[in-house]
Amino acid sequence: MRILVTGGTGYIGAELARALLNQGHDVVTFGPSSNLGRIADIADDLTVIRGTLEHKAEVFNTVKDHRIERIFHLGSMLSTPSQANPWASFQVNVVGTMNVFEAARLFDVPQVIFSSTIGTFALGAASVVNDFTIQRPTTMYGSGKLYCECLGRFYKNRFGLDYRGIRFPSVIGPGTTQRTVAQYNSWMIEYPALDKPFECFVTPATRGPGMYFKDAVRSLQLIADAPIKSIQTLNYNVGGLSPTPTASDVEAAVREHIPDAMITYKPDPAIMEYYASAKVKVFDDSYARHEWGWTPVFGSLGEIVSDFITEVRTSRSKYGL
Ligand SMILES: NC(=O)c1ccc[n+]([C@@H]2O[C@H](COP(=O)([O-])OP(=O)(O)OC[C@H]3O[C@@H](n4cnc5c(N)ncnc54)[C@H](O)[C@@H]3O)[C@@H](O)[C@H]2O)c1
Q1: Nearest C-alpha to atom 2 of ligand 1 is from which residue?
Q2: Sequence-ordered list of residues with C-beta below 8 angstroms from that of 120, at least 6 positions apart, any chain
C-alpha cells in the first residue's frame, strides 16, 4: 500500500515509517525539515517530501502525485511551541489537518489516522478519563487537537472518509528533544543510560499517564488495520503504563539497572503549575481494547525501562544520541 506519514521524520513518525517499510509498504514522509534525523539510515528506501501542512498545494500535490492510499497524520506543532506561538499552531495543527482531510476527500484516499492527545482533557477532568469524558482543553495545542478530532468525525459522517483517531498520553522513548511537561520520564531513563546526569524538572511525587514509543507505533498500525465495523467510538484513548508511575517510581526502576544514576530534582515552577491543574491520573483506554483489540506490549515500568536502556546502548545513532 502507498502510505503517507505526515511528520514522518519525527519521533513517533520515524518509527512508524520504519515499521511500515518493514511490512513492505511504499512509504512517503512529509514535513518541513531537510534534516532526515531518525530516518537517515532508511531514507533511500522511502520517499521524503519536504513540505508544510499549512500550504494546501504542498499537501495536495503529495497526495495526488504519489497516489496515496492511507494517511497517518502525525505532523504537528507540539504543546510548548503551540503555547508560545498560537498563531502558527492554528495554521499547522488546525488548517494543516483540514488540508489533509481535504486532500483525502479530493484525491480519494479512503483512510486517515489522526494523532491527538491526552491534552484535550483539562478543565474539570476527573482523575480517570475515558472516551466519553467531556473534553475541555485550555491550551492552544489541546484546543486545536480537539477541533481536529471533531473535524475527522465530520468528514466521516459527511464524506464517508474512514477517519480514525488516537489520543496518546506522554510517549516515552529515546531521542526526544522538546522539553514538554512530561519529557522528564524519557530523559530520566535516557540520560543515565548515556552516563549523563539528569536534573528532573518536576517533584518526585509528580505523576502523569504514559506509554512506550514502540506501543504508540503499534497502536497506530492496529487501529489502521482494524475492520471498519469495529471502529465505533472513532476517537480513542490508548494507554500503556499501569499503574501510572511517579517520577520517583521511574527513578527507582532506572536504579535497578544503573544503581549510581545521577538523578537530582529541581522542579520548574511553570511546569509544576501545569501539574497542579493536570488532574488526569488514569487514561482509560477500555474502548480501544474492547473495539479493536488494543493492548500494550510494554505494560509495566520495568519492561519499558529495560528495553529503553537497551535501545539507547545498542542503537544510539538511530535515535540521534
Ligand atoms: N510525543 C508525545 O508524547 C505525544 C503525545 C500526544 C500526542 N502526540 C502526537 O503525536 C504526533 C507525533 O508527535 P511526535 O512526538 O513524534 O513529535 P515530533 O515533534 O517529533 O513530530 C512532529 C512532526 O511534525 C512535523 N511538523 C511540524 N510542523 C510541521 C508543518 N508545518 N508541516 C508539516 N510537518 C510539520 C515535524 O517536522 C515532526 O516531524 C503529533 O501529532 C503529536 O501531537 C505526541
Answers
A1: 171
A2: 135, 137, 142, 145, 146, 149, 167
Residue 255 C-alpha to ligand 1 middle, in angstroms?
A: 30
Domains within the chain, CATH numbers bracketed: 2-170+213-237 (3.40.50.720), 172-209+241-280+297-319 (3.90.25)
Distance (angstroms) between ligand 1 centre and the Cα of 256 equals 32
Ligand 1 near 89 CB (within 6 A): no
Residues paired with residue 166 on neighbouring β-strands, in sequence order: 115, 236
Strands (E), 74-129: 111-117, 128-129
Q: Is the CB of 13 under 6 A from ligand 1?
A: yes
- Compute, in angstroms, the gap from residue 157 CA to the centroid of ligand 1: 26
pLDDT at 154 over 80: yes
3-state secondary structure 158-183: HHCCEEEEEEECEEECCCCCCCCCCC
Atom of ligand 1 nearest to the CA of 114: 41
Question: What amino acid is encoded at 202 in this protein?
Answer: V
Q: What is the pTM of this model?
A: 0.97
Which residue's alpha carbon is nearest to atom 34 within ligand 1?
Answer: 31
Helix then strand count (H, E) for the chain reads: 12, 13
Distance 155 CA to ligand 1 centre (A): 22
Gap from CA of 10 to ligand 1 centroid (Å): 6
**Amino acid of residue 45:** D
Report whether residue 9 contacts ligand 1, using a CB cutoff of 6 Å.
Answer: yes
pLDDT value of residue 299? 92
Q: Mean per-residue pLDDT for 101-126?
A: 96
Q: What is the pLDDT of residue 201?
A: 96
Please give the distance of CA 263 from its chain centroid, rounded to a whole number: 26
Which amino acid appears at position 131 of this protein? D
